[in-house]
Amino acid sequence: MLPTIPATGPPRFIAQSRGMLRVLALIERMSRFEAPVLIAGETGTGKELAARAIHYGSARRDAAFVPVNCGAIPEALVETELFGCERGAFTDAKHSREGLVAAAEGGTLFLDEVDALPARAQVALLRYLQDRIYRPIGGIRELRSNVRLIAAASPRLHRLLQAGDFRDDLVFRLTVLELEMPPLREREGDAELLAEHFVARYARHYGVAPRTLDPLDRAWLRSYAWPGNVRELDNLVQRALLLSEGDGLRLRPDDASAHPAMAMAAAPAGAAAPGAPLCSYNEAREAALSSFEQQYLLRVMKAAGGNVTHAARLAGKERRALGKLLKKHGLTQFRVAAGPAA
């Protein structure tokens, strides 16, 4: 969940980029219908924010919005959490318990990280989606529900489908409507807008004087790749606001060499060699991004002692995604530890 999401009520979007404005228009249209929605996007792009917006823009707005992180539920308990259980259904079931489907009756059930569902739970969810009837674990009576289902998945869902580790028939059921949340690096101008919003928001929250962003910070905001997306920016602004002294606010890192795009943006005019050809904006951006990725990977792998799994946790990325980046830059000498990536 992004820190900007309120516990209840419609969310507020901060955006001016064309990509996000298209997303907001789609959200408004999707709110009118009862069909299931699959929201795709990287970690921190605001998938739950979009799900809340769809719910609170719909006719179900006065009923419950029930979010559940599928990746945080132990595999053996997924069906119990979703559909509830009867007393005595298993050793620890001392009382009957209502599931999340029942808790969302009349409203919206949001399944975050649906790609983390184990195979057995995928079958149970598919069966429920076919006729909206379910049976609590250990129960005899079938129950009918009136719930709109919205799910969210990370980019790894496509890899799971290709590997046969996720049911394609379940994906078909979930993707009657599909929404793609763009990463922050593709939302031109939104990083500055969001940073200003977060500065004002946290200044009010913590009772500190509001600060302004200097030109170098603005240049860095535009050029940084934002692997953690809006969540990373939110946390960065909050930390900088609390730790900054005086009237200034510094968002950019002290080590500018770790962010080549920032170093280029901060370089004075005429710093390039006389007569050096000026490459296009896209070429410069791609070169800066590639250089940043390589240097960041070296730093995070050093901090993780060469352990890819640990590095993935530090970077806030899936282990497979980090491995793909390492391979892209020829950094294949590191080891992978057992256990799931963060």
Automatic annotation (TrEMBL):
A Gene Ontology biological process noted in the UniProt record is:
regulation of DNA-templated transcription
Q: Which UniProt keywords apply?
A: ATP-binding, DNA-binding, Nucleotide-binding, Transcription, Transcription regulation
Q: Name one GO molecular function term.
A: ATP binding
The segment(s) forming the Sigma-54 factor interaction domain are 13-242
Task: Please give the superkingdom of this protein's source.
Answer: Bacteria
Q: PANTHER family in the record, alphabetically?
A: TRANSCRIPTIONAL REGULATORY PROTEIN, TRANSCRIPTIONAL REGULATORY PROTEIN RTCR
Q: What is this protein called?
A: Sigma-54-dependent Fis family transcriptional regulator
